[in-house]
Design goal:
6-stranded parallel sheet, about 425 residues, 16 helices
């Protein structure tokens, strides 16, 4: 990390802006770095990637960087998402029509930062400038190589992942968001180890506790009452998110409480994400619990904070993640976390999370019941753990990465101090 160096650069920049020292007295290492952020194609609806990009837009200027953002515009993709042409027209927008634009815009930059490795195919078109690519996970590459059970990838998907991998290897620096992602990337030989580093994600927004009253006011539109105790899940409906185990754990909690003649620790289950599929809806109906399960879409950031703050706990039995943002988001809001005992969840959750076997709903239910007496302690430990995932620390790591990429092209650029 380069906290001392970055603080020095920030102080020097402040002095220039206030006229205390003239700009010509600033060393080359302290001058403003011009960063072109390459974001994702909006119609793809990748909320987490858009949130990641916004962190850089918001924070880099304070570290002495001049920032511009470029994203592929929607030109051809005017068909409904369920059309067979939707994917292919999106590919044309992203990987054909956008190329002249990004190549032209890269001329302005000192460093080009491709915020999502899925867009690594832009690397050859901006190679005149140092390139940094953030790798969030390699799950799609693993699936394309037949390494993920139950995930079959078609020929076009396999070709896409090969193209992404070959382009990724040409980046000046690949920044992984977790130690697990770095290990997996190197195992797949997607980039030379000398060009791979890790900057652990920080929180992507101001996640922090909300008092019960304001939190309840924010979530009342979802039909949740002040007395409702609910288990929360945040994420998509991809199979690896393991929503089936979430529903089965909720069912087990209700059954165990009924058999024991006691009240279950939670009476409701809330999903933030897409609607449940037919099989999970049928499962809930078979156990008479369909009316106690909600799925919420179009949730604002403040509403998500409130849901974390009001939830009895977050259940996150994911089978694969590159990082697992909901774990630290929940902890930062004072929500107890039950997460898979798998990396990276058990690396980032710290002592504040309770780790579970994601394949064993009955065991998960037992652990949630048993933790009832220490939820307060889990909240406190989780809040403490979340402090280690600051945006400031993350941005300092990326500033060091930019300088490293610049130095790789031009050894005369002063090295960042560690």
């Amino acid at each position: 990390m380069t906290t001392e160096k970055d603080q020095h650069a920030r102080e020097q920049l402040a002095k220039v802006l206030t006229g205390i020292i003239p700009s010509e007295k600033i060393s080359e290492d302290d001058r403003m770095i011009k960063v072109l952020l390459v974001g994702n194609y909006a119609p793809d609806g990748q909320a987490s990637m858009l949130a990641f990009q916004r962190v850089f837009e918001r924070e880099l200027p304070a570290l002495g960087c001049e920032v511009r953002v470029t994203t592929p515009p929607r030109r051809l993709q005017g068909v409904p998402p369920d059309s067979r042409w939707w994917k292919w027209l999106g590919y044309l927008d992203k990987f054909i029509l956008f190329i002249p634009t990004i190549a032209l815009q890269a001329r302005w930059a000192d460093v080009v930062h491709i915020c999502d490795h899925s867009n690594s195919m832009y690397v050859p078109w901006v190679r005149r400038k140092p390139t940094v690519v953030t790798c969030h996970d390699v799950i799609a590459v693993q699936a394309a190589r037949g390494l993920v059970d139950g995930w079959t990838v078609g020929w076009s998907g396999r070709l896409l992942q090969r193209l992404i991998g070959s382009a990724l290897a040409r980046a000046d620096l690949v920044v992984c968001v977790s130690h697990l992602t770095r290990r997996a990337l190197l195992e797949l030989r997607l980039a030379d180890e000398s060009r791979v580093t890790t900057v652990v994600n920080g929180l992507n927004d101001n996640f922090c506790p909300i008092e019960p009253g304001p939190a309840q006011a924010l979530i009342s539109r979802f039909g949740l009452r002040p007395e409702d105790q609910f288990l929360l899940h945040v994420g998509s409906d991809l199979p690896r998110k393991n929503r089936k185990s979430v529903v089965e754990t909720f069912i087990a909690l209700q059954r165990r409480a009924a058999e024991a003649g006691t009240e279950a620790p939670v009476q409701h289950l809330v999903f933030v994400g897409p609607e449940l599929g037919p099989s999970l809806n049928d499962l809930a109906r078979q156990h008479g619990l369909a009316d106690r399960i909600r799925t919420l879409q179009d949730v604002t950031h403040e509403e998500l904070r409130a849901l974390y703050a009001r939830a009895t706990a977050l259940l996150f039995p994911s089978l694969q993640e590159g990082f697992g943002w909901p774990v630290i988001e929940a902890q930062a809001c004072g929500c107890p976390v039950f997460a898979s005992d798998l990396a990276p969840m058990n690396e980032i959750g710290g002592a504040g999370a309770c780790y579970i076997n994601p394949h064993a709903p009955e065991s998960m239910a037992e652990l949630i019941e048993g933790a009832a007496g220490r939820l307060k302690e889990m909240r406190e430990l989780g809040l403490q753990n979340a402090l280690g995932y600051s945006t400031t620390q993350m941005m300092a790591g990326y500033l060091a990465a930019y300088r490293l990429a610049l130095r790789a092209r031009n050894p005369r650029v002063p090295a960042a101090h560690s």
